[in-house]
Design goal:
- Belongs to the fructosamine kinase family.
- GO terms for molecular function: kinase activity.
- This is Fructosamine kinase family protein.
- The chain has helices at 3-7, 39-50, 79-94, 127-146, 151-158, 200-209, 215-225, 236-251, 255-263; strands spanning 11-17, 20-25, 30-35, 59-62, 66-70, 110-113, 116-119, 171-173, 182-184, 188-190, 196-198.
- By secondary structure, it is α+β, with helices and mostly antiparallel strands.
- It has a single domain (73-263), classed as Aminoglycoside phosphotransferase (APH), C-terminal lobe (Aminoglycoside 3'-phosphotransferase, Chain: A, domain 2, Alpha-Beta Complex), CATH 3.90.1200.
- The strands form 4 sheets. The chain has a 5-stranded antiparallel β-sheet with strand order 1-2-3-5-4. It has a two-stranded antiparallel ribbon with strand order 6-7.
- β2 and β3 (30-35) form a beta hairpin.
- The longest helix has 20 residues, at 127-146.
- The radius of gyration is 19 Å and the shape is globular.
Length: 264
């Protein structure tokens, strides 16, 4: 369907923003349209919004080939917004999920993280077992196939001794919370989720992966609202292993080496 069909309003202006379009409707509203396989993203946005915690663009309409959301106001990061973001992210995670690997309600099991396919199947059992089997192993194999990792380096990652920390319940994750998916106005907004049930430290590790304005302020506010388990900073590399392997699969380069360094 078209933006007009999904919103009930005519488009009077369009501006390309890479993989999405920013459209002006005839009632003056600014919206963002994304085309492609967007079912999982639409379900994820709704699931995150249902927690009434982080700021999420409203889903105005979605079908199998098009997602239309309200545009996020523009602005710049501030310490106050970062503090509020840390607290709201803690509240989002505390909203929980049915299981590790659980997709958003009504969403498909097949999703995407960047340009890589990602499967969400809920499982019983410890987080680390699910994480290694459903997140690390598939992309480890892909990274080797692409040539981003040697078979011997992949074996070193597989055999690395990792400490997952104390057991925690499944958290409601954004799932792809790198700095590019955090937009700032008078507050922080999150976009482009790969939402699922996972470990809350994964979202925090993603924020640190490529740098975020006022990151330490975000983390301090989060820790004050929902204290993190001792040693959480030592586990950042473990939680970054999955996105690094995704990047190694998609882009090659030094991401394979970075994945190896994360856990060895």
């Amino acid at each position: 369907m078209s933006v007009e069909s999904l919103t009930g309003h005519a488009v009077v202006g369009t501006r390309s923003l890479g993989s999405v379009e920013r459209c002006t409707l005839d009632d003056g509203r600014e919206v963002v349209a994304k085309r492609g396989d967007v079912a999982a993203e639409a379900a994820g946005l709704r699931w995150l919004a249902a927690a009434d915690a982080v700021a999420v663009p409203e889903v105005l309409g979605a079908d199998d080939g098009c997602l239309v959301t309200a545009a996020v106001p523009s602005g710049s990061a501030s310490r106050e917004a970062a503090e509020a973001f840390g607290r709201s992210l803690a509240a989002l995670h505390a909203a929980g999920a049915p299981a590790f690997g659980a997709p958003p309600p009504g969403g498909p099991a097949d999703a995407w993280i960047g340009g890589a396919p990602m499967r969400n199947d809920p499982v019983e059992g410890p987080w680390l077992d699910w994480y290694l089997a459903d997140r690390v192993q598939p992309y480890l194999r892909s990274a080797v196939d692409r040539g981003a990792l040697s078979a011997s380096d992949a074996s070193r990652i597989e055999n690395a001794s990792v400490d997952p920390g104390p057991a925690e319940p499944p958290a409601r994750l954004h799932g792809d919370l790198w700095s590019g998916n955090v937009l700032w106005s008078d507050r922080a907004w999150v976009i482009d989720p790969t939402a699922h049930g996972g470990h809350r430290e994964t979202d925090l590790a993603m924020l640190a992966l490529f740098g975020l304005p006022h990151l330490e302020t975000v983390l301090a506010a989060y820790d004050e609202a929902a204290p993190l388990a001792d040693g959480w900073r030592d586990r950042v590399g473990l939680h970054q292993l999955f996105p690094l392997l995704v990047h190694a699969t998609l882009f090659g380069g030094g991401y394979g080496d970075a994945a190896l360094r994360a856990v060895t």
